[in-house]
């Protein structure tokens, strides 16, 4: 059966959240993949009642065609060619195949050039696993974007971007809705602004991304308070950045700490300013005990199920890749949190135990980030 893929990208939205396609058009988009084998069938996915989601920054996955936006190491004159690209697609696919339990149900990938990269992954060694839904998001003129490959039908997609203080958030937030086993959940796939240019100077753009997500979550809760949401991807911010930076800068990710709450309460009086931060909690369900009750909290597995880090920089581990979960994942109704782990194992790590960084000149390695795996369990009660 023919597989259909659709690209979404190049949209910069100024302060508004817009649906890319009317909901009524989505069945037409997905009509070509009806009738494929059940996603939870034998050998095709996680056992029924469970769901696995992978988040991975695959480190500058460029295709073999030079269009002018590539980084220097990925130009033809630097030795980059279709053969190296094909070999890289193959090595990434084989690594995903080797994951304990088999390939996950959903792959969220950062630092990919375009939709073609997703299509090539889906049609290569991973073809027999049925990744028949693919979406790409990126800003026009940017070298890299992000995307999703899924074995589960995607029922709705939205793309969110923002211009803040005349600066464009470099990558949009990709909102993806799934209904596995008729229990809906939503994924916010992200790649926030890096700290290149200065930690403090770039913080406003990471806060802008947090603001987009918080506003959208509040919209969803107003009409579907039961739907759980995951904020995931490379947020370019550690879960404990507030402490690493000695509380001098309010990072977009804040701990549920009285010191952080006191600064916000003292210096920010408008609700819009408070909406620039995601409050992280180690509690299940998450709660913001030290903040205003109107501020939602998100469960972070860092320091709980996950240790060390996923990115190794200047001889130190960093926790810049994330799964942040809403409280609905802890109510034993619908999809509930089961576990989360860093795939600190071969082939994702090298002999030193750090990420097996890709070298475009030699063609060896995978990525400078380790993947994260989220595992969910379906607690939906059968109806009479």
Q: Please identify the structural class as seen in this structure.
A: alpha/beta
From the alpha carbons, calculate the radius of gyration and give it in angstroms. Answer: 20 Å
Order of helices and strands: EHEHEHEEEEEEEHEHEHHEEEEEEE
- Estimate the strand proportion: 25-35%
Query: What average pLDDT do the residues reach?
Result: 85
Question: Which term fits the overall shape?
Answer: globular
Number of strands: 19
> In order across it, which strands form the biggest sheet?
1-4-5-3-2-19-18
In short:
This protein has 384 residues and is an alpha/beta fold. The protein has helices spanning 26-30, 82-97, 115-123, 203-223, 241-244, 258-267, 271-274; strands at residues 6-7, 50-61, 106-112, 133-137, 145-150, 154-160, 163-164, 167-168, 173-178, 185-191, 229-234, 253-255, 278-281, 297-299, 311-313, 316-318, 321-325, 335-342, 372-378.
């Amino acid at each position: 059966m023919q597989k259909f893929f659709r690209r979404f990208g190049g949209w910069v939205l100024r302060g508004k959240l817009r649906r890319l396609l009317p909901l009524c058009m989505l069945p037409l988009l997905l009509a070509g993949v009806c009738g494929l084998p059940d996603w939870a069938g034998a050998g095709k996915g996680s056992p029924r009642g469970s769901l696995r989601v992978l988040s991975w920054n695959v480190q500058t996955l460029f295709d073999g065609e030079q269009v002018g936006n590539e980084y220097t190491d990925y130009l033809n004159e630097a030795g980059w060619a279709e053969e190296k690209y094909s070999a890289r697609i193959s090595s990434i696919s084989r690594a995903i195949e080797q994951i304990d339990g088999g390939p996950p149900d959903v792959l969220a990938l950062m630092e990919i050039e375009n939709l073609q990269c997703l299509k090539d992954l889906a049609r290569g060694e991973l073809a027999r696993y049925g990744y028949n839904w693919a979406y790409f998001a990126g800003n026009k003129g940017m070298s890299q974007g992000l995307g999703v490959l899924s074995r589960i039908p995607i029922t709705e997609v939205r793309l969110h971007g923002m211009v803040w203080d005349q600066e464009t958030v470099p990558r949009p937030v990709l909102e993806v809705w799934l209904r596995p086993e008729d229990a809906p959940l939503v994924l916010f796939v992200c790649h926030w602004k890096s700290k290149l240019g200065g930690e403090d100077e770039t913080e406003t753009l990471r806060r802008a991304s947090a603001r987009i997500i918080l506003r959208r979550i509040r919209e969803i809760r107003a009409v579907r308070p039961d739907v759980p949401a995951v904020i995931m991807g490379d947020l370019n911010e550690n879960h404990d950045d507030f402490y690493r930076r000695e509380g001098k800068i309010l990072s977009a990710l804040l701990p549920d700490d009285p010191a952080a709450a006191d600064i916000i309460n003292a210096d920010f009086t408008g609700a819009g300013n408070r909406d620039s931060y995601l409050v992280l909690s180690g509690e299940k369900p998450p709660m913001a005990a030290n903040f205003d009750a109107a501020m939602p909290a998100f469960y972070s597995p860092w320091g709980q199920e996950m240790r060390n880090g996923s990115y190794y920089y200047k001889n130190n581990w960093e926790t810049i890749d994330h799964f942040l979960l809403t409280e609905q994942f802890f109510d034993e109704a619908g999809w509930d949190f089961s576990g989360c782990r860093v795939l600190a194992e071969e082939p994702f790590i090298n002999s030193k135990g750090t990420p097996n960084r890709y070298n475009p000149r030699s063609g060896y390695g995978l990525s400078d980030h380790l993947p994260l795996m989220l595992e969910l369990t379906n607690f939906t009660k059968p109806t009479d």
